[in-house]
Known about the structure:
The chain has helices spanning about 15-30, 35-40, 45-65, 70-90, 100-110, 115-125, 135-155, 165-185, 185-190, 200-205, 210-215, 220-240, 250-270, 285-295, 300-310. With about 325 residues, the chain is an all-alpha fold. The chain folds into two domains: about 1-130, no CATH class; about 130-314, Farnesyl Diphosphate Synthase. Helix 1 (about 15-30) packs across helix 3 (about 45-65) and helix 4 runs antiparallel to helix 6 (about 115-125). Residues about 5-10 and about 305-310 have low confidence and may be disordered.
Amino acid sequence: xxxxxxxxxxxxxxxxxxxxxxLCRRVQKAHSRTYYFSTRLFPAEVRPRVHALYAFMRYADxxxxxxxxxxxxxxLSVLEEFEAETMAAISGEEVPNPxxxxxxxxxxxxxxxxxTIAAFMHSMKMDTxxxxxxxxxxxxxxxxxxxxxxxxxxxxxxxxxxxxADRHAEALGVAMQLSxxxxxxxxxxxxxxxxxPLEDLAHFGYTQQDLASGxxxxxxxxxxxxxxxxxxRLYAVADEGMGYIPRGRRFPVVVARExxxxxxxxxxxxxxxxxxxxxxxxxxxxxxxxARCAARDPxxxxxxxxxxxxxxxx
Length: 314
């Protein structure tokens, strides 16, 4: 079974590599307006790699994010098939899935470590059997594979080798995912999942029944403030590593960081009511955040323009 994250149809196995990359671009554009916005700011040689990375992640997400369409046993089976096909593609075998052809090309070109891919797939499999996390330490096992390694993969895509930046890249990946978790509490509940540690709910006297009813009171506000502060501490760790990103490629990462962190600001602006208000940034708002980032580092923008003029697409 092969799901098309762009529209639910079977993928066309006859696409060229360039067409496969373009499919990945369309997948990202359709499913992540914020991430797509920041991706378009990368130089031409980086942009398709990011599209491929996103489409690969989205493909796996589509398998586990529709529990009513596939029973859990089938989800696990499809994930294992997808993982096997991924590893075959990375090893140079011809595979019918165009998303994997583009992703495997990116993995080889950017020296993305296979262990990070295995960690990502492990977390996707966790979504087929684990729906609650008793402690934050338990949740960290999941977020390492679902988010921290995404930061590591992005490091390789933008040209940062393994080393000192890894801790900061992991922190950014997790901070962005925690921001999404807080925005999507209601949506995740409807999918049968709770990504807030149960120990945190208990600490503030907030129950899963309250969550199901969308209760927003002083207990929920205190809980959300606690979780938001945790995410912001991770953003601070990520900020310490931005200098490792090559000039001309740093700006889009900074913009993405600002846009995802702004989700937390929007949650606060809506008085923490994530059940009836979706915390999102309008396109004019995104442009404003990008302009502010540019104003903070004009030399980066100059380098970005220079690389854009001289760098070919893959």
